[in-house]
Amino acid sequence: MKPSTLDQKVKDHYQQQKLSAHKIQHLMEMQSLQSEKDETRSWRQRWEKQRRLSIAALFMICILGGIVFSTPSPFDSLQTRISKEIAMNHNKHYEVDFVSNSFSQLNAKMHKLDFNLAFPKKLLNSGYKVLGARYCSIQGGIASQVKLQNSLGKTVTLYITQLTKELKPLDSFLQQHDKVTINTWKENELFFGLAETP
Amino acid sequence: MTQEITELLNSGYRYANSLTHHSAKAEDILQDAWVAVLHADGPKTKAYLFSAIRSRFINQYRRDQLVPIIPIDEMDNDHAAYDEKYFDHLEYAQLEKALESLRSLEREALFLAVVEGYTAEEISKLTDQPRGSVLSLLHRAKKKLRTHLTNLDKEALA
């Protein structure tokens, strides 16, 4: 289309229309302000993303740590595994199922046991008296959890199980888990574990 | 960069002026559109800014205030009868008044074709109208301008 005189006049008419310098400056400032906002927003978004990732990572570490520390590790020694199991049972504070003050009566009542309960020689002069017992297990084998009380009224738990092939090589040991002191020893084909809290 | 933005803003202002034919309203629409472009982090191009201006203009003035579209086959083609030299000494004020007599869509089509140099096809895409409607708008705009300016001149002579 060949530009006509009218077209040129219209073009000139519009071309001379311009924003004032003040208005241009105002719009330019808006652009600068928006750029700063975008930069700040971008920085905030990055920071927020990193913060969320850090929280998620920490959360995962806590969960994994909880799992690791709450489950017996297959790399723990047998002594440690037994100590942890006894400490866990002790802290449950279960009531006794068979109330009795003598081992002979407990043997009569606890017929599921494949061994005879006997008061350990090690504790003969300790002044403990028998309150009762209940079934439990140690390392998958059936055991008895006997509640004892000393002359001061303090109760402790004595774990007794058969001295299996697995337990035989163990020497006496003393360990502490979850504020429970566990003392173990062997007597006459029986394995004993005494758990007490301070 | 500053020079390019200044030129872009001035083009946007002229385009808004072609739609509104009112400098203050044109500035307002341009500012709204500019804020939207910045906020959306859109491209600082004429097409993007014009599109933002146009949508704001339509929102403000509603479509029913815009000029009705007349099919191209209803147009007459007698504009060649006008003597283009007649307009050589046209005063700015006269042209301003003549442009005011046009409808918004006519002024817009005229501006985009004559000032910005867009083809009918490009205007059709930018304004989302059929090409025939754009040609119709252009024809009617020029015809109206010539008629209006002729009348103004006759009134001045009388």
Structure write-up:
The complex is a heterodimer of chains A (198) and B (158). Chain A contains four helices and seven strands, in the order αααβαββββββ. Chain A is an alpha+beta fold and 198 residues long. Chain A folds into two domains: 3-68; 78-196, Phosphorylase Kinase, domain 1. In chain A, strand 6 and strand 7 form a beta hairpin. Chain B is an all-alpha fold and 158 residues long. Chain B folds into two domains: 1-69; 77-158, Winged helix-like DNA-binding domain superfamily/Winged helix DNA-binding domain (Arc Repressor Mutant, subunit A, Orthogonal Bundle), CATH 1.10.10.10. Helices cover 68% and strands 0% of the residues of chain B. Chain B contains seven helices and no strands. Chain B has helices spanning 2-20, 23-39, 46-61, 92-100, 104-115, 120-127, 131-157. Chain A binds chain B through residues 1, 3-7, 9-11, 13-15, 17-19, 23-24, 27-28, 30-31, 34, 38, and chain B through 2, 5-6, 9-10, 13-14, 17-18, 23, 27, 30-31, 34-35, 38-39, 41, 84-85, 87-88, 90, 92, 95-96, 99, 110-111, 113-115, 142, 145-146.
Provide a concise account of the structure shown.
By secondary structure, chain A is of the alpha+beta class. Chain A has helices at residues 5-15, 21-70, 78-92, 103-109, and strands spanning 98-99, 129-138, 141-149, 155-162, 173-177, 180-187, 190-196. Chain A folds into two domains: 3-68; 78-196, Phosphorylase Kinase, domain 1, CATH 3.30.200.
